[in-house]
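Handoff note, outgoing to incoming analyst
You'll be picking up this chain. Sequence as last confirmed:
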Amino acid sequence: MSYFNYQSKNIYYTETGNGKPVVFLHGNTASSKMFEPLLPLYEEHYKVILLDFLGHGKSDRLAEFPADLWQEEARQTIALLEHLNYGKVSLVGSSGGAWAAINAGLLRPDLVEKVVADSFDGRTLGEDFARNLINERTGAKLDAQAAWFYQWCQGEDWERIVDMDTKALVQCAEEKIPLFLKPLSELKIPLLLIGSVEDEMIRPDFQVEYEAIAGETGAETCMFSQGDHPAILSNAEQAAETIRRFLY
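Most recent structure output, in case you need it:
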């Protein structure tokens, strides 16, 4: 097990594989465990680095999550890159981790080579985001499969973590807190956007949103015709091939 210190707390991370370093950033209510089934698709090509954001997985817990959670997770990511001292590193962020990855690229382009953003809403949250999130999380906590996933990622305190995350994201949506530290037009590093057309956990018009982001940043986009949330898992082999080609 490896940890590094960030603001007097310990953040857990792992490294496996060989090649250019790539950090994978997990989504909300998940942990680095979500990427473990994908390791055989990447570790022969890259040094794969996984971390648990504070309050998740094997990292230290927090009393609450900040409403600007994805900006804060970007700062944790940058702290990891500084700790590793590998020079420029590519980031692959899934769902909530996509915002963290893009923010890290905006914050420190000197440390980030390329960014892959998977299965996220884009520049803003939908008008019904808060209500839909509350309904989705209420149902998920009662669903055996979803509860198993939460517990697998977090441990016995999974329900508290889910509730804290829901509270932070609802506050973010209701107060219209900016999702990015800087205007997206200031992103100066290569960006790839991926998603599944059938994904029901992100905004229905996400394809239009992706094209708008591409217009601002010059990003590449890749849509998979099938699969649920997130695309990096539901289209694992196709997504891995696309990501490897982009990061080459």
